[in-house]
What we know:
Layout: H1 6-15, E1 22-26, H2 31-40, E2 44-50, E3 67-71, H3 76-79, H4 81-86, E4 89-91, H5 95-101, H6 103-107, H7 120-123, H8 126-136, E5 143-144, E6 154-158, E7 168-170, H9 173-179, E8 186-190, E9 195-204, E10 211-212, E11 217-230, H10 240-245, E12 252-259, H11 267-285, E13 290-298, E14 304-310, H12 336-350
Parallel strand pairs: 1-2, 1-4, 2-3
Antiparallel strand pairs: 5-8, 6-7, 6-8, 9-11, 9-13, 10-11, 11-12, 13-14
The structure holds adenosine-5'-triphosphate.
The site of adenosine-5'-triphosphate has 21 residues, from strand 6, strand 8, strand 11, strand 13 and strand 14.
Amino acid sequence: MTEVTADHIHKLIDEYDMDDITIATVCSHTSLQIFHGAKKEGFKTLGICIGEPPRFYDAFPLAKPDSFMSVDSYEEILERTDELADKSTILIPHGSFVEYLGAENFANIRLPTFGNRKVLGWESDRQIERKWLEGAGVPMPRKIKSPEEINGPVMVKYQGAKGGKGYFIAKNITEFNESIDSKEVYDLQEFVLGTRYYLHYFYSPLSGDGYRLSQGTLELTGMDRRVESNADEIFRLGSPTELEEAGIQPTFVVTGNVPLVLRESLLPKVFEMGEKVVEKSIELFGGLIGSFCLETVLTDELEFKVFEISARIVAGTNPYINGSPYSELIQPDLSTGRRIAIEIKKARDMGCLEKILT
Ligand code: ATP
C-alpha cells in the first residue's frame, strides 16, 4: 500500500467545506460518545459498519449517527476514501477502529484523522513504547529479560495480544513452562501489586489556558478501572491457594469499565506523568495529540507504575458521557467524544486543522 503524505492530507483539508464537516468513526468501542459529542458541537456524523447498521443505535437517538456507510470488510474503507472526502470527513480513531483495520492500514488511510498517526509506531511495539515512556522518566514495571530470571510474579504478555487475552501470571520458571505457548512472541514484566488506575488525559496543542506545557495544555478528563474477566471476581470461588490447587488461573479479558476518583493529593503526580509523556512525544515524533490514557498500577507506597499507554480515546471514558468528576471542573457535560469535537471546531475556526489532523 502506498504511504500517505502529510501534503496529501493538507490538500484534502484545503478542499474541505468547513461549514459541512462530517465526523466519522467505526461503530464500536466509543462511537456512541463520539457521535453524541460531535452532534452536540453541531457536526454531521457518519458511522462505518460491517453490513447493516447495528440496531442498538435506534435505541439511543442522541448518539445515532446521521448516516451510515456499510462495508463488507474494514479494508473496503481504504477503497472508499474519495466518497468520504467528498463529505469533508474527519475520522476519529479508537482502539477497535485501529485494531480492525490494522495499524499499518490505518497509518496510510487517505483521509484526515484526528491525532498524530506517527504515534502508532511508538505504541504498537512494547520495546519502542518502553523507550518512549522510560525515556520520559515515567516509572514502568520492571522488564524481565528471560524466563530464567523469574524470581517473583511476572505477567507474561504475548506480542500483539489485545484486551489482555492470553496473558498469564507465572511466579517461577516451572509455572512459566507449564503455560507458555512457545509459538508466540512474548514479553515478561514484573507483576505490580496494587490498585489499577487508567488515567484519561487530553493534550491540546492549540489551547493556551489551563495546565500549560511547553506548547499547549494538558487536561485530566477522567479515570476508570477496567473490569476484567475472570480476574476481578475469581476470588468468589475460593482462596488463592484453593484456586491454585484446583488449577484455576486468573485471566484478564476486558469486559467493561467502572468510574473512579483518586486521592486528591496524588493529582500532582498524575499531571507530572502526563506532562512528561507529552513533552517526550513532542521531542520524539512531533507530539501526540488529543486524548490518551496511561494505564497504571498504584502501589501501597503510592507509586504509580505505567504498564501501557493508549494514544487515543479509550473505552474507559464511556462512563462519562455527561462529564466526569474532573471534566466537570473544566466544562459542564464534557465527554471525551465532545472534547474531541470541540478541539476540531476550535482548529477549524482558527484555520489550523492541520495542527490536529494527520
Ligand atoms: P489493551 O491493548 O487493550 O490496553 P493489552 O492486551 O495491551 O490491552 P494490558 O493493558 O497490557 O493488555 O494488560 C491487560 C491487563 O493485565 C491490565 O488491564 C491489568 O489488569 C493487567 N496487567 C498488565 N500489566 C500488568 C503488570 N505489570 N502488573 C499487574 N497487572 C498488569
